[in-house]
Amino acid sequence: MHGAAERALGVHRVLEPPGVLPQAALRLDTDPAIGPDEVRIAVQRLNLDAASFRQLSEACGGNGDAVREAVLAIVAERGKMQNPVTGSGGMLIGVVDAVGAESPLGLAAGQRVATLVSLTLTPLRITDGLVRWDGRSEQVPAEGTAILFARSIAAVLPDDLPEPVALALLDVCGAPAATARVVERSGARSVVVLGAAGKSGCLSLAAARAAGASSLTGLVRDEAEAAALTAAGLADRVVVADATDPLAVAAAVGTPADLTVVCVDVPGAEHGAVLATAQGGTVVFFSMATSFPAAALGAEGMAADVTMLVGNGYTPGHAAMALDLYRTTPGVRALVDPRVHA
Ligand code: NAP
């Protein structure tokens, strides 16, 4: 039997190996019958983490049917959506289906919510074979059930935004919150965002501006993204470089910045990020494709005195901040909408 504190973390749902937290588990119990401290969600849509979706897509040669089968196989085997290569998941939206009498989450049956805890630790059962998904986009129409624990978090979906947009924003809402926090706490003035035309990237630029940063550089991968980011007006300077080419990043960025935020969805951006950052500055690695050894040993090897932060997906107020930035910043809408509706 697990105590209330352990149950709150979902330990009672771990099937193997015993004793680990759900995120580290190989397999979770997805039984839709809930305990008194749990909440059951009727799943409507999954949002796969960008790094995970890209990896699956590339591994399947872009074949959507194969991607769908791969996702179904992972969920069937693990009882959760955790990509075994990237280790990342995503999040989901659905309708609150049942609420245990002792759940502290404050949710009520019938509410439409987005789970703000990762799919990597959320017990998930898919019942429709993902038949409405072509395997070609991060957003996955789905039917099934998901379980929230006492220490999970969920946001009631806003009425004024389309569901896919809210889902996309809430998936990456940790990035603008982390960016704003570093700017406010460290007084960073110059900020570089790698992958600046993407969802988390453009939100991070907008958050840096709102928090008081005065010199914003957006690094993008090609001229098409450069044109889109320039038109969005979120950066003072837009530069083009491959974020995985450290010397190209350093040359494109020029004078290193107080803060660098890594928002690409590919591996290999660690060294460029370190080179883009001034001595005494900070790097936020929001990308799930980040390698801890590459970042730590790379910084050491370059004698770079930079503070390196893992982009925590949770910061108090992160969901409201991301939704507000989208509502109030036309440039964010211009960059996010085509990615969501694509
Ligand atoms: P996104 O919208 O796909 O944006 C990624 C951007 O990076 C795109 O503009 C992409 O360009 C660009 N890019 C890819 N390779 C590049 C390269 N070599 N050089 C320069 N730019 C490049 O992704 P997102 O949803 O914002 O997610 C970004 C990252 O955040 C992902 O790694 C995801 O896993 C991570 N994430 C972290 C958390 C957390 O809690 N820490 C939560 C959610 C997501 P193209 O579109 O042209 O490829």
Keywords, separated by commas or semicolons:
binds NADP nicotinamide-adenine-dinucleotide phosphate; Rossmann fold; 6-stranded antiparallel sheet; 6-stranded parallel sheet
Describe the structure.
The chain is an alpha/beta fold. The protein folds into two domains: 4-157, no CATH class; 174-341, Rossmann fold (3-Layer(aba) Sandwich). The protein contains twelve helices and 14 strands. It has helices at 4-9, 50-59, 64-78, 163-171, 174-186, 199-211, 223-232, 246-253, 270-275, 292-301, 318-328, 330-341, and strands at 14-16, 27-28, 39-48, 90-99, 112-115, 124-126, 139-148, 154-156, 190-194, 215-220, 237-240, 257-262, 277-285, 307-310. The strands form three sheets. Strands 6-7-3-4-5-8 form a six-stranded antiparallel beta sheet. The protein has a six-stranded parallel beta sheet with strand order 11-10-9-12-13-14, with helices on both faces. A two-stranded antiparallel sheet has the order 1-2. Helix 4 (163-171) crosses helix 12 (330-341) and helix 11 crosses helix 12. The longest helix has 15 residues, at 64-78. The mean pLDDT is 96. NADP nicotinamide-adenine-dinucleotide phosphate binds at residues 49-51, 88, 171-172, 174, 195, 197-201, 220-221, 225, 242-244, 263-266, 286-289, 311, 313, 339.
